[in-house]
From TrEMBL:
It comes from Arenibacter aquaticus. Gene3D superfamilies: 3.50.50.100. Coiled coil: none annotated. SUPFAM superfamilies: FAD/NAD(P)-binding domain. Its EC number is 1.6.5.9. Residues 10-329 form the FAD/NAD(P)-binding domain. It catalyses: a quinone + NADH + H(+) = a quinol + NAD(+). InterPro entries: FAD/NAD-bd_sf, FAD/NAD-binding_dom, NDH-2, NDH2-like_C. The keyword Oxidoreductase applies. Belongs to the NADH dehydrogenase family. Residues 353-408 form the External alternative NADH-ubiquinone oxidoreductase-like C-terminal domain. Pfam families: NDH2_C, Pyr_redox_2. Keywords: FAD, Flavoprotein, Membrane, NAD, Oxidoreductase, Transit peptide, Transmembrane, Transmembrane helix. This is NADH:ubiquinone reductase (non-electrogenic).
Length: 430
């Protein structure tokens, strides 16, 4: 990898997400050599992926070059690399661009979509965990409408205009709301020769309420908002299969659709070599102690979504959200420096700053520690917080200008099929 050996200890971070970047910032200008590896050369602001999928934002405005974040950091090296294996015995990583030795290793690899072993759903559904996947979904949504114009088969047209989203967490809720707004504000203008009133958006949730990690008030208000926008919510319904045409559930309900979006779960993005049964907790996350140290590995740490720190207050680990990732990254940065100074480590304490979700224009729900609110003010708070956490001044400005423009013009101009998604429509012909 052409990384020089120095007298400083080498800390290798796998992953330039929220956790990896906040850790890297803490190690800036210290007596360590830091190597950051990521399979992408950019950091992705995942909370706004649904806006890319629905043409509200260009992908460039929610991605930021990792090299630019690290550009003034001395003793820092970035390599575009996919890590394939960790040889813990040799303190070595195996990657697609060669091997690399480490003194300390930090897993900040985040999470991947969890299909719970259902291969059929994995093959035929759309996920929304990365920018390429969001662009695929954007193309597919638009291609479906182009195709709906061409068919003279009633059932095919219905299936093309049916959107089924599985998972009533923030991702599913935000995507459903955005699709409903497109149906209302954009489709009638773009497709005057298509009866876009027939567009249906279904949100399927296995439990008894959507946004189950938030307060009951937030759940019921979000449900009201979505139903007001015309989204059909199916609770107590578990999707069991999708062959690319028919969605099967554990009830009598089935859906015919060309688009199933799977937002029903994530699991830790593990790497071979650190995947023994006793290392992994529920959801493929790596068990760590209160210092984010991986059990039985003194020089290996895990932070963010991939880490499972089971405490009395968090028996299933911390929520797989940006704030725990950022806070763990910061705390680990301080702890690594303490470790090198032979000082005692500081246990991680999560400061829950609350959670929020938007359902659409003027509609959001916010749960803070002492106050919960919904509606227009919540929507402004949601926008402010997301702008604040975006990396890069340019990105903040572009997103802000886009939002103002979209708000005034009731528009989403990035509805472009730049990179077509090759959907096989033949299944709908018969
Ligand atoms: C659609 C969506 C909406 C979300 N909305 C919210 C929200 O509103 N609020 C909120 O708090 N959280 C939200 N989240 C969750 C939040 O984005 C994650 O909790 C957060 O990104 C976790 O940070 P992380 O650093 O652990 O992982 P990530 O940010 O996922 O970063 C992991 C990095 O590791 C890299 N990587 C992985 N494996 C390898 C490998 N083998 N080799 C090299 N590189 C690798 C990846 O390329 C990536 O850059 C959302 C997530 C999604 C998908």
């Amino acid at each position: 990898m052409n990384i020089p050996k120095t007298s400083f200890p080498r800390i290798v971070i796998i992953g330039g997400g929220f956790a990896g970047i906040s850790l890297a910032k803490k190690l800036n200008n210290k007596e360590v050599q830091v190597v950051l590896l990521d399979k992408h050369n950019y950091h992705t602001f995942q909370p706004l992926l649904y806006q890319v999928s629905t043409g509200g934002l260009e992908p460039d405005s929610i991605a930021y070059p990792i090299r630019k974040i690290l550009k003034d950091f001395p003793n820092f090296f970035f390599r575009l690399a996919q890590v394939k294996e960790i040889k813990t015995g040799d303190n070595t990583l195996v990657t697609n661009i060669g091997n690399l030795e480490y003194d300390y290793l930090v897993m900040a690899t985040g999470s991947t979509t969890n299909y719970y072993g259902n291969r059929e759903i994995q093959l035929n559904s759309m996920a929304m965990k990365s920018i390429p996947q969001s662009l695929n979904l954007r193309s597919l949504i638009l291609e479906n409408f182009e195709q709906a114009l061409l068919t003279d088969q009633y059932h095919e047209r219905e299936a093309l205009m049916n959107f089924v989203i599985v998972g009533g967490g923030p991702t599913g809720v935000e995507l459903a709301g955005a699709l409903a707004e497109i149906k209302k504000g954009i489709l009638p203008k773009d497709y005057p020769d298509l009866d876009t009133r027939k567009v249906q958006i279904h949100l399927i949730q296995s439990g008894d309420r959507i946004l189950k990690e938030m307060s009951e008030k937030a759940s019921s208000k979000a449900e009201d908002f979505l139903e007001g926008l015309g989204v059909q919510i199916w609770k107590h319904t578990r999707v069991t299969g999708y062959d690319g045409k028919t969605v099967k559930t554990d009830t009598d309900t089935i859906f015919e659709t060309a688009t199933l979006v799977w937002a029903a779960g994530v699991k830790g993005a593990g790497i071979r070599g650190l995947d023994a049964k006793d290392v992994l907790a529920r959801g493929n996350r790596i068990r760590v102690n209160e210092f984010n140290q991986v059990m039985d590995h003194d020089n290996i740490f895990a932070v963010g979504d991939v880490a499972c720190m089971q405490t009395k207050d968090t028996p299933r680990g911390h929520p797989m959200m940006a704030q725990p990732a950022i806070q763990q990254g910061k705390n680990l940065g301080e702890n690594l420096l303490r470790l090198l100074d032979n000082k005692p480590l500081k246990p991680f304490v999560y400061k829950d700053k609350g959670s929020m979700a938007t359902v659409g224009r003027n509609k959001a729900v916010v749960d803070l520690k002492n106050i919960k609110f919904q509606g227009v003010f919540a929507w402004f708070v949601w926008m402010f917080v997301h702008l604040f956490f975006l990396i890069g001044f340019r990105n903040r400005m572009v997103v802000f200008v886009n939002w103002v423009y979209n708000y005034i013009r009731f528009d989403r101009e990035a509805r472009l099929i730049i990179r077509p998604f090759n959907r096989n429509y033949s299944a709908f012909k018969d």
